[in-house]
Amino acid sequence: MPLDFTAIDFETANSSNASACAVGLVRVRGGVVVDQTGWLIRPPSGHDRFFDLNVRIHGIREEDVAAAPSWTAQLGPLSEFIGSDVLVAHNAGFDMAVIKRACEATGDECPPYRYACSLQVARKVYQLESYRLPFVAAEAGFADFPHHNATADALACAHVMIDAARRLAADDIGSLAEYAGVKVSQIAVAEAPAVSFAVA
To answer: In terms of residue numbers, what domain contains 20?
Structure first.
């Protein structure tokens, strides 16, 4: 099996996981980056306030997303790019929570994506003082990128996984996770409750 996956990164407008305001996506095939994209997102209603702290981090403001697609509108292109890939993100629990919580906020069906965490992999593969993405990416040979630009962060994450796979002689995401001693997890999607009808 080849080393195929999609790296993903979200930026949020505030402390709510549902407040996605940008996404970056990078497709890897056979251990090589073959495509990348990213776009702004208008956060779901009720989660659309932009905190100063977040703006200082990523530079995205409310006016920047005024004409951007809503979470619901962008979910189709997101899913189309990802396809059946395993997702990879740095601190993947955060990015998967963004998908789940944004879908909950909008009533959209949450895709049950499988995912792996490059932060967990990095802690097993590298010996570093810090495992923040810029430090890990530099160790993987990918330095000097605009951190907190969603597409750049996804690209850095992809390079970390490609380098880790090379160091561990792993041919695919499954074997990389196994050799590194981490799990390939899945977004837990709540099932719709069973409906019972009383008989008069």
So the answer is: 5-186
pTM here is 0.94
52 occurs within a structural domain:
yes
pLDDT number for residue 189: 80
Q: Quickly tell me which residue has 């879908």 as its tokens.
A: 103
Within-domain flag for 56: yes
CA distance 108 to 104: 7
CA distance 47 to 34: 33
What is the pLDDT at residue 31? 98
pLDDT, position 191: 57
* CB crowding 66-103: b at 16 or more within 10 Å, else e: eebbbbeebbeebeebbeebbbbbbbbeebbbbbbbbb
Q: What is the mean pLDDT of each run of 10 residues along the chain (200 residues)?
A: 94 98 98 98 98 98 98 98 98 98 97 98 98 98 96 98 98 97 92 49
Number of domains in the chain: 1
Q: Is residue 142 part of a domain?
A: yes
d(CA 98, CA 41): 12
The 3-state DSSP class for residue 162 equals helix
Helix (H, G, I), strand (E, B) or coil at 92: helix
In a domain, 131, yes or no: yes
Query: Which residues does residue 87 pair with via DSSP β-bridges, in sequence order?
Result: 6, 115
